[in-house]
């Protein structure tokens, strides 16, 4: 059962490996290994994005929440 890929994408990948001569069990192992790599790479990317967001938007902590003016009509 896939954890990162959709069920359809997972099955298509397995089917492609089987079509290229791999046994179904070997194809599933390969796709599971690729999925683990994709999950790790996504987590690393997300950590980078979080770090950039924290650095870039640090000034938001200094904004006074009561000073935001929303009266559009005037």
What's this, in brief?
By secondary structure, this protein is mostly helical. The protein is built from 2 helices and no strands. Helix 1 crosses helix 2.
Structure notes:
The protein has 74 residues and is an all-alpha fold. It has one domain (7-62). It is 62% helix and 0% strand. The chain contains 2 helices and no strands. The N and C termini lie far apart (57 Å).
Mean pLDDT, all residues: 84
Distance between the termini: 57 Å
Task: Domain count, please report it.
Answer: 1
Pairing-aware structural class of the strands and helices?
mainly alpha
Whole-angstrom Rg:
23 Å
Secondary-structure element string: HH
Find the count of extended strands (DSSP E, 2+ residues). 0
Low-confidence stretches: none
Shape: rod-shaped
- Percent helix, as a range, is 55-70%
The number of helical runs is: 2
Instruction: Indicate the proportion of strand residues.
Output: under 5%
Largest sheet: none
Outline the fold blueprint.
Elements: H1 7-19, H2 24-56
Helix pairs in contact: 1-2
Primary descriptors:
mainly alpha, 74 residues
């Amino acid at each position: 059962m896939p954890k990162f890929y959709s069920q359809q994408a997972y099955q298509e990948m397995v089917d492609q490996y089987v079509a290229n001569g791999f046994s179904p069990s070997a194809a599933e192992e390969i796709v599971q290994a690729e999925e683990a790599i994709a999950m790790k790479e996504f987590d690393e990317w997300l950590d980078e994005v979080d770090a950039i967001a924290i650095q870039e938007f640090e000034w938001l902590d200094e904004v006074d929440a009561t000073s935001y003016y929303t009266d559009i009509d005037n």
